Amino acid sequence: MLLKSKIWEVKLLGELIIVSNRLKFRKTDAEDLDFVLDAENAGENRLFINQWSREKHVSALEDSNVLHMVICDVDNKRVGYNILIGINNPSGELTMQRFVITEKGKGYGREALGLIKKIAFEKLGMHRLQLQVREYNERAKKLYKSEGFVEEGIMRESAFVDGAFKSSIMMSLLEQEY
Q1: Is domain 2-129 annotated with CATH 1.10.3470.10?
Q2: pLDDT digits (tens, 9 = 90+) for 133-175
Q3: Is 23 strand, coil or helix?
Q4: What number of other Cβ atoms are within 10 A of residue 165's Cβ?
Q5: Is the pLDDT of residue 10 over 80?
Q6: Cβ distance 86 to 93 under 8 Å?
Q7: Calpha distance 49→167 (Å, rounded)
Q8: CB distance 82 to 108 below 8 Å
């Protein structure tokens, strides 16, 4: 019951999920989906994440177990998005399905990841935050490691990218490591 009350706390915040000095997370709405799809398909991102259809994103927006969020700067300009799956998971395991920053080189990725960890462990009361990162995504791996994530293993040839199978690395952060 404690986990559900913490989830309700996030929902009580309405559209706005969490705010820092430079960034704010809000729930994604249908009007954001062009931005989300463009971000996924942008050349600097498309090799690192699986592209979803608009319909799959709409389904995620309607799923009570998914927290689909747009990341905005202080001027309300969208600078990324994030999808967390498992917010109702009774075992306390949360999956970061997507984490895309469109405004690179400004420190938004590190700051946003800090807010994601805060949502996972402080707002949702999760025990574990996990993610998959493509083995060749050095920038993301470096960020995740510097933020305390631990490599758990390789998921061999788990994604089909540009006509070839690519491997991913499973990483996680536990509540006591946060």
Answers
A1: no
A2: 999 999 999 999 999 999 999 999 999 988 999 999 999 999 9
A3: strand
A4: 10
A5: no
A6: yes
A7: 12
A8: no
